[in-house]
Sequence to fold (345 residues):
Amino acid sequence: MVLPRRVLVQEGVPGCYHLMSRCGRQLFLFGGKYAERRRWVERELRRCAESMAVEVLTFAVMSNHMHVVMRIRPDLAVGWSEREIVDRWLELVPRRGDYGERLETDDVLREILSADEAWVEERRRRLSSMSWFMRLVKQRIAHRANRQDDVRGHFWDGRFKSVPLVDQAAILACMVYVDLNPVRAGMCAVPENGGVTGYVVRCARKIRRENGEEIDCSESWMPELARCGIYRPAFEQGNTIDKYEWEYEPPSCTDEEYLLLVDQTGRQVQNRGLRVPLESVSVLERLGMRSERWVPTMSKPRQMRGILVGAIADRRAAAARLGQHWVSCFTMLFDERVGAELPEG
Fold:
């Protein structure tokens, strides 16, 4: 059974999601001579994240598709003033002239827009919308690529796919899975050589910090994992989604632990191993994940799929909030139908 996005992604509710979008007609429009376009995607993801109420946790740009793990934060947008909403929106979507040139917006017009309550509230909603985030990122990439190729028509294959990640274990597993895409695809032997991924960005930031350089740590672009918790609903029986109170659960993984986990898992995937090194087992056990399933899950394609991804108890709770008896999860790591016995490696 498939649930529409408007049911899974409820407006005004914080949540974390795995997003994926492919190039049109199965073409490799980010590979070969178009490899520089991967940097376009990275820059657009950062530009939109820094103006919107979202957090990009990691990403990977492949030859014909891209992955993003992101969190929407409507709770942040609620606290922004009317003028801040106007400034953020005009930074994202500037006024254009007849020939596409960017027009400056003076203070008088900004004050007029700030006084328009309906306009401000609609932009406040858009600034915390996953759909608008992907729309703005993909739109600029498509326009720029079409101008470069001197063609018209669709650059992307439809909109995008989104899968809610309902607990800390699902978020960590999906982030590692996305960062290891280049290793699984045979593009590199180790994840730090994976090209345009969130892991490469975090590694570069770690090196700069060790060299004593000043680090620009954005709260929305690749934030430090030590302050990236998850919001869980604390609700009473019979309450509707509008009446939930959301409790903040502290994170259970630091940047250093995450980088080590990705590095060691990537080496196991490359060497066809099955066992997680002892240094990273503690992170998985802390999140209640079965370490014997970790490397096999990260080695196989098309794993982070389903209506929801997460542990069975969290999926049941999420299904109840959505008014469903059950939701599917096609991920070996969280699928209770998969046998516990796996071959020795």
